[in-house]
Amino acid sequence: MTTRAKKAAAPKRRTYHHGDLRQALVDATLKLIATEDVGAVSLREVARRAGVTAAAPYHHFRDKDALLAAVAEEGYRALNARMDEAMTKARSPRLDTQLKALARCYVRFAVEHPAHYRVMFRQEWSDEEKYAGIHTEGMRAYARLQELAQEARVASGGKVDMDILAFTIWSWVHGLASLWNEGPLRKKSQSDSIEPLLERSSEMFVGWVVGKAP
Questions:
Q1: Inter-residue contact 141 to 80 (CB < 8 Å)
Q2: Which residues of 137-150 are buried (b: 16+ CB within 10 A; e: fewer)?
Q3: Cβ proximity of 151 and 81 under 8 Å
Q4: How many CB atoms lie within 10 A of CB 97?
Q5: What DSSP line would sit under the chain, residue for residue?
Q6: All domains of the chain in start order, with CATH
Q7: Tens digit of each residue's pLDDT (9 = 90 or more) over 46-90
């Protein structure tokens, strides 16, 4: 085969308009994580899957961590949007109704977007200055839990520790979602849907919280 023929047979690289490449790389990363794992991510492999040159990702991301940080920040933004919508729809002054709405929203997001969720809580993002976007969006999500924990504290006459309750609520929804996504709860429940478990767990846990804040 001639050199000209070889060039003609080579895969055609995609051409992205200004602003499209960054999102294409994030989307390719999410698909890679979904089919393999975070450990499989590299700028070269993501570029290959996006159909661009190996050098192209460096126009937007200095390294793999920067790319994964973009995935995490996108995940937090999407979670916050879902939380805003869920709390608006709940439209109830009742603490139990608000807690259930928030819990269902959080867990459903994690189950529907496991690739995002797997990246959002990596230890690497603890550098608040380096990953300011992740920290800002993450704190906005956590503030929702703090608001409800504060309501519970007020309702209990100050008997409930707001920070401990916020940590406990977060641990509950995060643990439920993680154990489902990783398989143990899915196997134990013998179900393809987390909804029955989520509803029973919400009734039990929220009942306990409200019981502590009569």
A1: yes
A2: bbeebeebbbebbe
A3: no
A4: 14
A5: --HHHHHHHSPPPP---TTHHHHHHHHHHHHHHHHS-GGG--HHHHHHHHTS-TTGGGGT-SSHHHHHHHHHHHHHHHHHHHHHHHHHHH--S-HHHHHHHHHHHHHHHHHH-HHHHHHHT-GGGG-TTTTHHHHHHHHHHHHHHHHHHHHHHHHTTS-S-HHHHHHHHHHHHHHHHHHHHHSHHHHHHT-S-SHHHHHHHHHHHHHHHHHH--
A6: 14-61 (1.10.10), 69-212 (1.10.357.10)
A7: 999 999 999 999 999 999 999 999 999 999 999 999 999 999 988
Q: How far apart are CA 205 and CA 186, in angstroms?
A: 19
Tokens of 167: 């940590």
What 8-15 contacts at long range (C-beta under 8 Å, 24+ apart), as own/partner pairs, is 11/51, 12/51, 13/51, 13/52, 13/53, 14/50, 14/51, 14/52
Q: How many residues does the chain have?
A: 214
Cβ atoms 77, 133 nearer than 8 A: no
pTM: 0.85
pLDDT over 60 (residue 18): no
